[in-house]
Amino acid sequence: MELFEHTISQLHEQLKKRQISSLDITESLLKRIDQLDGILHTYITITPEGARKQAKEADQRVGTGQISPLTGIPLAVKDNISIVNTPTTCGSRILKNYIPPYDATVIQILRKEGAVFLGKTNMDEFAMGSSTENSFIGPTRNPWNRDYVAGGSSGGSATAVTASLCIAALGSDTGGSIRQPASHCGVVGLKPTYGLVSRFGLVAFASSLDQIGPITKDVRDCAMLLQAICGFDQHDSTSINTSVPHYMANLNKGIKGLKVGIPKEYFIEGTDKEVIETVESAIASLGSQGAELIHVSLPHTEYAIATYYIIAPSEASSNLARYDGVRYGLRSEDTDDLESMYTMTRAQGFGPEVMRRIMLGTYALSKGYYDAFFKKASQVRTLMINDFRQAFSKCHVLVTPVAPTPAFKIGEKIDDPLTMYLSDIFTVSPSLAGIPCISVPYGMSSNGLPIGVQIMGNYFDELTLIQAANVLEKTSDTSHHRPPF
Ligand code: GLN
Description:
Layout: H1 8-16, H2 22-40, E1 43-46, H3 48-63, E2 74-78, H4 105-113, E3 116-121, E4 141-142, E5 145-149, H5 155-162, E6 168-173, H6 179-185, E7 188-191, E8 211-216, H7 219-229, E9 259-263, H8 273-288, E10 292-296, H9 304-319, H10 338-349, H11 352-365, H12 371-392, E11 397-401, H13 417-422, H14 428-433, E12 437-444, E13 450-457, H15 462-475
Parallel strand pairs: 2-3, 2-6, 9-10, 9-11
Antiparallel strand pairs: 1-3, 4-5, 6-8, 7-8, 7-12, 11-13, 12-13
The structure holds glutamine.
């Protein structure tokens, strides 16, 4: 097995015993990136010099016996997470030349642990999308079949993990952007409880929904990376100060007595048959391993897409007002007064989906429409939170599909925004509620594409998600298959 194929936990063991060096791992990945990135379009920026320097520092550190789980491990970072002195484009022309002067909190933490950063991964512009087609560098390709999307918006991170162009990656999830690409690529992705992981240094899309989370080859790695990045941060006003359990130490505790809820609104017509079968067999597997299966209802699920696509664009329209040609990135040259400089910069800098969202959001927040749209959506959001509270009074986790279909073809949905939005139907509700969810690979479609299963948990109960996912991983079908790369 080549070094680039290993997991964090495997490499950590070998690094600890000094059987390998971080520089060896890093070189093996840089070579792999060199061979495959041109085909898969995984990275927007690759930072080989920085990575080699960090790897050497990690090796010195290991030499003095100071090793933490991420020391010397090469990671990929979604391009909306700030790394000091490294371009952070958010997949947008408007930030093409933007270089942040500081590290995001998650990067500061990982840097302290001695992690290695290989580069910044491709994504839908400002994380708006479900396919990574809305990127100014073009779409990322699914390693299982290059004609298919990788999912989005963290498609670059998911592909990098799947095709071994990094050991593990960070993504961000506002309405499914970690879970859905993880599912489409056959890797593990976790969206933490809102407030568990600091958003400081994450470029804001919809601030009441955004969370950074791990995308990894297996559940163990997911636990290791989450453990590293979570925790209170005074630089994020929505960060929550709560004690965090030791995920790794409790990983193998099993699921005896676990009450698994099956929400009927997530098994609906229009969902691909193979997706339903995959989720049903995952539920059966949990049942046969000691879980109690309970049928529950989340009655306001039918409003999820409408609610999300008012709240997220509204927040985005406000957050993206800062890109005006004055403070960040691109400035249009074709203007002679201030107002046209603003408008031309934005017209030239933003892609069509981002413009659509800014218009939707501005409309929903404007005088005369605010009550009918934003306020109403916020009220429905509260009803959806109450649905989850009700459900979690009867069970510990909920098991559902991640997306209604496996990965779709590049180009298939890009001209039909509503169809694209509908592919988020199973991921946006838990985002609106702020609860944690994990996507774990479980099945394969007849045309050879992975299918993930989503497990949702109660607030700050990531541990139960990880334990259940760990059990599922052992009976999954996907693990017997390898992507062609
Ligand atoms: N696909 C959803 C959207 O386009 C979610 C994106 C995300 O989670 N960043 O808004």
